Structure prediction request, 277 residues.
Amino acid sequence: MVRDISWARGRRFDEAWVLPNSWRSAFLAFASGSHRRFGYSTDHRRLLLTESVEKPASTGHQLRDYDRLLSLAGIEPDGEAPKIAPSAETFRKIDALLDADRLRDGGSRPVFLAPGAAFGETKRWPAERFALLADAVMDGASRAALLVGPSEIELGRLVARRARHRIPILGADLDTGELAALLSRGRLLIGNDSGAAHLAASVGTPCLVFFGPTDPGRTTPRGAEVRVIDRYVHCSPCYLKKCPFGHECMEEITVEMAFAAARSLLEATPPTIPGMK
Ligand code: SF4
Prediction:
């Protein structure tokens, strides 16, 4: 906390937008010295914020949760899905990365599989199934790579070891803009309800997303063709980080189900980058 405050104070922000609903996040904005601090008045935070309003009921898609906050600041919410446009320089770096692993040969677009989820293990479809699915995708001649975050390198290695095909592991050392550029070069992203899926959709890459403990009505990625597999078992959505049962919500999603959905998305997406040979 002390380090975060010192980082924020050093940057002398004019405005702070407090999107988490915790008291801690509002206190950080207050301690940062920002002149204007926007946030919902949850958790006794009114005194820490300069502009606050009661949080509306969260019933629709989470993207719309902050519309009231935007209106408070005089900004008209546009209702559009988020879009990220990486710079030309970022694309150059990412294309070199893809070339090094021969993922772009002949202008091909790789399939990315993202087995992680920062939230925790309940959001993760089993690693061994990601390996089987990666093999099925690569048996069909598609190039593929695993995408992981910095804390998921071991998970990526586990999936790669279990796969029959060699599959590179990318992403752990990339920033958000670089990841967005990488994903925009993909033909399909297969992953859990995670940052990778949302980022892929924001750059227009089709997604196949496995939902378990969370609610697709709230957090299905927006911005591209998205197929959700959600088994909706007796306890879902639970939003728990540890499953008290047998993780049925994810266990009931079979490799066959996933591959059928992936194949239908791949059939609808060109295998090469338009304009490249
Ligand atoms: S409690 Fe139910 S919804 Fe939650 S992780 Fe376990 S099986 Fe899935």
User: Anything to note?
Assistant: The chain has a mean pLDDT of 93.
